[in-house]
Amino acid sequence: MSTTSQGNRIKSPQSESNGETPKYHWNLQVLLREAIFGVNDGLVATIGLVSGEALSHQSHGSIVIAGLSSVGAAMVSMSVGSYLATVSQNDWVHQQIKEQQADIQNHPHQEAQEVTELLEDIGIPDRSIAQIRKDIISSRPRWLKFMVREALGVHPNHQETPLANAVTMAIAVMVGSSPPILPFLLPLPTLTARDLAWALSLLAALTVGAIKGRLTGSSLVLSSLQFGILASLSAAVGAGIGWALGLLGA
């Protein structure tokens, strides 16, 4: 009896062992995490790159090529990294569940005592623990499900989908990279495109920060400032490197 994961969707141990049709759940919190991470990475990395390219006196065409190449590479690397990280995490969770299943099979008395301890930890009255423990351990699927949730801290809704995470990451990186790279795709002078890229990137960072604050219930102002400062710092670092290289004639 094992848990078969579909990433953000998972078959619970109980439904699988009973032959029921598994119920799947999408974990929107995980996708939000990947989206915020991807947008921030795309925005911060790209504004730093184009700032450095622009201030090192590269041609307009060179900036466009470097920017688009960077966006493409970031989309691939970040999405692949997200996919592999999710697969590794799910594999580890599955192994923990298998070990828990084996412990119940091979050491039932010890695991039953752990059920008692867990019930005490979550505040079940002493007078009720014996009956609740009896109800839990009377069914192996129920017992495993309880131990998976309470002992391992694994909940079906918290499992992640590797492909969904990877696609979300790739799209988020592309979206985040758009504000700093789009001005250079327009028929504008390089300096004008650079200044517009800075303005759009700062606006995008503040907007993403506000959206994150809204979705997570945190302060909109602090969240916006956090993203804005990160984007500004990246632009400053890239601009500083580009300016220095320009002085050296690189």
Order of helices and strands: EEHHHHHHHHH
- Stretches with pLDDT under 50, minimum 5 residues: 1-24
| Strand order across the largest sheet | 1-2
Can you summarize the main beta sheet?
2 strands, antiparallel
Strand content: under 5%
The total strand number stands at 2
Mean pLDDT figure = 83
Helix/strand-derived category reads mainly alpha
**Oligomeric assembly:** single chain
Distance between the termini: 63 Å
Shape: elongated
Using only C-alpha atoms, the radius of gyration works out to 25 Å
Helix content: over 70%
Number of helices, counting only DSSP H or I runs of 4 residues or more: 9
Please describe what this structure looks like.
This protein has a two-stranded antiparallel sheet. Mean pLDDT is 83; it is low at 1-24. The chain is built from 9 helices and 2 strands; from the N terminus they run E-E-H-H-H-H-H-H-H-H-H. Helix 2 packs parallel to helix 7 (162-185), helix 3 packs across helix 6 (140-150) and helix 8 (190-216) runs antiparallel to helix 9. It has 250 residues and is mostly helical.
